[in-house]
Write a structure and sequence with these properties.
The chain is an all-alpha fold and 199 residues long. 80% of the residues lie in helices and 0% in strands. It has 8 helices and no strands. The longest helix is centred in the C-terminal third of the chain and has 42 residues. It is globular. The relative contact order is 0.11.
């Protein structure tokens, strides 16, 4: 759980580093973006390490189980919103607003579904799903690719645009698949509880 708190503490540092070069003089470069990328990488790595250690050492806690996804959502949400701004991401590389809206809509749907299950059944079971894990991985890749887009463009000008567009599409599509998957799981939980009450 200590690593979860570390991610929460690093989040404002990451946000400050991303915003430190705004408004940016294109000729001056972006001296803080590598530090922002490093902090982001640390946060992403500690997320995986936190889950691994909790399982390995059998130190999972209810508070940790609650805070861990919150830290993940805050990291991804802050990153996508900030990098949807041309001033932050660079005019050509900003993440399209519809992509951000789709990711947020999925999270809102998950939150509403959780509340509905709690109200109707008094409990809810939210387990990591393949689509959710894949979506998080793609979103992390999108954030890193967007931060490094200017550098990638200087190395391979023809690669950056197709890469980012592929990640935009992948992020949106996987978020939609994850949303449908969560709805199916929620409906199954309602049906299971209803069947249990009948028996």
């Amino acid at each position: 759980m200590g690593l979860t708190f570390l991610r929460l503490l690093l989040l404002p540092v990451f946000i400050w580093l991303l915003l430190a070069d705004v408004p940016v003089d294109q000729s001056a470069g972006r001296p803080h973006k590598y530090a922002a990328l490093a902090v982001f990488a640390v946060m992403a790595i500690t997320d995986k390490l936190d889950g691994y250690l909790a399982r390995r050492l059998n130190q999972a806690s209810k508070l940790g189980a609650l805070l861990d996804p919150v830290a993940d959502k805050l990291l991804v949400a802050a990153s996508l919103v900030l990098l949807s701004s041309p001033a932050v991401a660079g005019g050509l590389w900003a993440i399209p607003i519809p992509v951000v809206v789709i990711v947020y809509a999925k999270d809102v749907l998950l939150g509403v579904g959780t509340i509905v299950l709690l109200v109707l059944r008094g409990k809810v079971s939210i387990k990591p799903r393949l689509a959710g894990k894949l979506g998080t991985a793609i979103q992390l890749a999108l954030v890193m690719a967007t931060i490094l887009a200017d550098d990638l463009y200087r190395i391979h000008p023809g690669v950056v645009s197709p890469l980012l567009k592929s990640l935009w599409w992948a992020t949106a599509v996987v978020a939609c698949v994850a949303a449908v998957d969560y709805v199916v799981q929620g409906v199954r939980q309602l049906q299971t509880e209803a069947d249990a009450e009948k028996n």
